[in-house]
Amino acid sequence: MLEQKNKILFAIEEISQQMATLARDIHAQPELSFEEHHASAALQAPLQAAGFSVTRGVAGLKTAFRARLDSGKPGPHVALLAEYDALPELGHACGHNLIGTASVAAAVALATSGTLQSGVLEVIGTPAEEEGGGKIIMADNGVFSGIDAVMMFHPREKNMMTRGALACVDATFKFYGKASHAASAPHLGISALDAVIQTFVGINALRQFFTDDVRVHGIITHGGSATNIVPAYAEAKFLMRAASVSGLQTVRSKVFAAAQGAAAMSGARLEIEEGLTYAERNNNLTLAGLFQANLEQLGLAAEAAPERGGVGSSDIGNVSQLTAAIHPYLRIGDVIPHTPEFAVAAASDRGIEAMLNAARALAMTTLDLQQADTLKNVRNEFLAWQSSVSQEK
Q1: Which of 112, 179, 186, 232 has its CA 20 to 30 A from that of 85?
Q2: Chain segment 340-375, per-residue pLDDT in tens
Q3: Strands, E, within the chain: which ranges?
Q4: Which residues form the Peptidase M20 dimerisation domain (predicted)?
Q5: CATH number given to 2-165+281-392
Q6: Which of 283, 303, 297 is nearest to 360 (CA)?
Q7: Per-domain residue ranges for the chain?
Q8: Which CATH architecture has domain 167-274?
């Protein structure tokens, strides 16, 4: 096994400059959710060159893809997940340029080193993690059926193997009022903006009654057209989070009630557009232990994840409900995601090195899964978790 892993390390060293260029190219051309045409094509190219067969437009998503390499021998079916969408205004301030490239680098190394001797390896390109839930759509379309384990990495400010994530859902509240002259005939108008403001007030009044895991945050996306016109239309978007999907439903009902109450108070009519629900993350501890052991072989130590707070949400949570999954984090600097500083770090030398170390550990962990007993342990943990969840329901 050591000899095989050394082959992987050599293969990644051989492509390190190519992968660094790829990550920085995607970083320099940030694309929003479902619009990642350049990044998707750029990630597919080295996979095709390494012998993977590529299918585009997976699950009806134009920028989704799956690249498949079949050894022709029975064995594990492993998928490395690629993300590559960026944030509005901030670009790659969540480091998805590194995420996608790490999975591609790991897969190419496994293919070119000749170490993938059994089973099937895939790289699944999953668009729209930030806004739209690409993995949720793909999961609902059966993309992850039959896969034994999925893996990816995420850049962060420290190395963490089993950090959790909150369930979340977004909702857009659209209020329809009645326009009127704000000075000469305000009494004839119905202010949709007042309904938005009262929605914020109502939600803020709820905060003392939320449990500690809950987060609710919103923005006003439309507040009117002119100060001297009573706003006939106003709109706000909120994101609700909780530790689990079941807890999220309680939060959702309270937030929706606040918006409905604001509409009743103002006289405006309310329409609600709800997004997809991101599930909480189920970390496979056995698989995470394999990844950590490989990381330690590279000279990197893991730190404990925070016991409370400090977590966001990701659509890999939905995938982790279907199969064994890990989403470890590797340090790229003293930076927090979704900030300009993080965007800079995602193209830095330190960011590139973290991406290459992630690729090394992902590839080595994929190799570990070719051992029948190791795969069985990973699968048994997932099946036991799945059974416990079914019993709770």
Answers
A1: 112
A2: 999 999 999 999 999 999 999 999 999 999 999 999
A3: 53-56, 65-70, 77-82, 120-125, 149-151, 154-156, 167-176, 215-222, 233-242, 269-274, 324-326, 329-331
A4: 171-258
A5: 3.40.630.10
A6: 297
A7: 2-165+281-392, 167-274
A8: 2-Layer Sandwich (3.30)
